[in-house]
Design a protein that fits this description.
40% helix; 8% strand; five-stranded mixed beta sheet; 514 residues
């Protein structure tokens, strides 16, 4: 029989303000800056605070009356450190003045010189220089309103260099367009990973391209610059480099036969089988393999990359008078505050608390408070990391201690998930380089004496052993495991192999120098 009953129970609900705080905390610095810019563009109660106007202002996040932090107001934390630690070195991670750039302009010639007029149909807008270019137009600074970065010399990318060289090739319009398509299809290593049949359908050309024309264009691209560019496989890349050598190069033909037919056997170091297949002696095979190993498997890496994977650190660690000082990076601090004039006008109006403008004002105040809380949480986590890993800053990665997110959470009185969000996609600029927060949380390994060490310290030991090994008799993973055992670190051979692969170090046979 149906009945009606009352039950009392508790459940956790996240308010919109708390949801926003959680979302902001897990964003990276670049994503956070983008979120703030979108809020400045859409919310009329927020205004941007230029860096010059922030000097001396306090972050009044409690009532949302002012923006957050200039560099002078950024909270700092000090971790005790013995005297004689790392010296400066933070200049590379700090913003530089304009005077630190090279103000001497480079000469790149006039705009109407460098290429013949018959390349007018070429559509790529390439600078008229062979190896370098400036970050902005030389003529753009004649009005006196120039920036120091206008004179920074930037290396040409792979595609820019090839487009630049293609201008000098006497090709008709269709062949030139086909070569341009091939150039744009190259990856950063200089390889053509796509099939030529996939490049035939381009509506902007006006005429259909067949595979034969693209194949001819590929051969043209392969001759424009460094040998090996435009290869479709590793074997072809090495073959192009060998074919570019003089014909009287010793053992060139034998090396060419190896890379075209027996490259996998060479990688597995099956020397006996190679001698039988090639019909050569051990000395000739050794000279041919040495010639192959001098070739470049990734010729595209010699050019500037079009996209730089830049990282903006969230906190900066400096050593000041023997102590480690942690501060929030001024470059990522939110420069926004409540627009006082608009807020006062709204307060004098007869708008209700449920009006759209009232909701936007409330969202602006929430954003500023949560942004301040985000900076504060990241700083506190950074303080704790530096305090617990002080030995790292003095002795390097070999001194990293095992640490868990729970250890930081218990010390700061935060939830472990909050610490996880505060360390995800967050970076710390130190005198030893820029490191992700997660780098300071290596897992724990037991030692023979009953103590503990970190996995990062074990990787550092393996790296030191490999660096100090005899190149003609490299240490195998089994020998590395035995050497670690002598130092009291008990790890399995497969663990050593995993750590070596994580550091992108080849196996012992691949490290052997004949």
């Amino acid at each position: 029989m149906p009945s009606i009953a009352l039950q009392t129970r508790q459940h956790l609900a996240l308010t919109p303000r708390l949801q926003q705080a959680v979302r902001l905390l897990q964003l990276s610095s670049l994503e956070f800056q983008q979120e703030l810019r979108e809020a400045l563009d859409t919310n009329p109660f927020l205004e941007y605070v230029p860096p010059a106007t922030e000097t001396g202002e306090a972050a009044e996040a409690a009532d949302g009356a002012a923006g957050i932090g200039a560099a002078a107001d950024a909270p700092t934390a000090v971790a005790e450190m013995p005297e004689g630690g790392m010296d400066g070195g933070m200049e590379a991670a700090m913003p530089q003045d304009a005077s630190s750039y090279n103000d001497e302009p480079a000469s790149y010639g006039d705009d109407n010189s460098g290429y013949p007029d018959d390349g007018g149909a070429y559509s790529a807008d390439m600078p008229s220089t062979g190896a370098m270019r400036t970050s902005s137009n030389y003529r753009g600074s004649e009005d006196g309103d120039s920036d120091a970065s206008d004179w920074v010399r930037v290396p040409l990318s792979l595609r820019e260099q090839l487009h630049d060289s293609l201008r000098l090739s006497p090709l008709d319009d269709l062949d030139r367009a086909a070569a341009q398509i091939v150039i744009e299809a190259l990856d950063d290593d200089g390889y053509l990973r796509q099939e030529l049949s996939e490049l035939t359908d381009f509506e902007d050309i006006g005429e259909a391209l067949d595979e034969d024309r693209l194949r001819v264009a590929l051969r043209v691209v392969q001759t424009l610059d460094r040998p090996g560019i435009g290869a479709r496989s590793l074997s072809e890349c090495l073959s192009l480099q060998l074919e570019a050598m003089p014909e009287d190069t010793p053992h060139r033909d034998l090396a060419l036969q190896i890379v075209t037919q027996h490259l996998e056997r060479l990688a597995r170091r099956e020397n006996g089988e190679l001698q039988r297949q090639l019909g050569c002696d051990a000395q000739a095979l050794q000279a041919a393999t040495a010639l192959v190993r001098r070739l470049d498997p990734k010729p595209g890496n010699h050019y500037g990359r079009a996209d730089g994977g830049y990282v903006v650190p969230d906190v900066i660690v400096r050593q000041v008078r023997g102590k480690w000082v942690v501060s929030v990076n001024p470059a990522i601090e939110p420069r926004a505050r409540i627009h006082k004039l608009y807020a006062e006008m709204f307060a004098r109006s007869d708008q209700t608390s449920r009006s759209p403008l009232a909701q936007q004002l409330q969202e602006a105040r929430w954003l500023i408070r949560n942004a301040h809380k985000r900076c504060e949480t990241i700083l506190r986590v950074g303080e704790c990391i530096v305090a617990r890993q002080k030995a790292f800053f003095q002795y390097g990665e070999i001194a990293l201690r095992p640490m868990l997110l729970r250890d930081v959470a218990d010390e700061l009185g935060l939830h472990e998930s909050t610490v996880s969000r505060a360390t995800g996609n967050k970076y710390m600029a130190t005198p030893r380089g820029i490191f992700e927060f997660k780098r300071f949380f290596p897992r724990e390994l037991e030692t023979r004496t009953g103590g503990t060490c970190s996995a990062a310290a074990v990787r550092a030991l393996i790296k030191e052993m490999i660096d100090a090994e005899n190149p003609k008799d490299p240490l195998s993973d089994v020998v590395l495991t035995q050497e670690l055992e002598k130092q009291g670190v008990q790890v399995a051979r497969r663990t050593v192999t995993k750590y070596r692969q994580m550091m992108k170090l080849p196996a012992a046979e691949m490290r052997r120098q004949i």
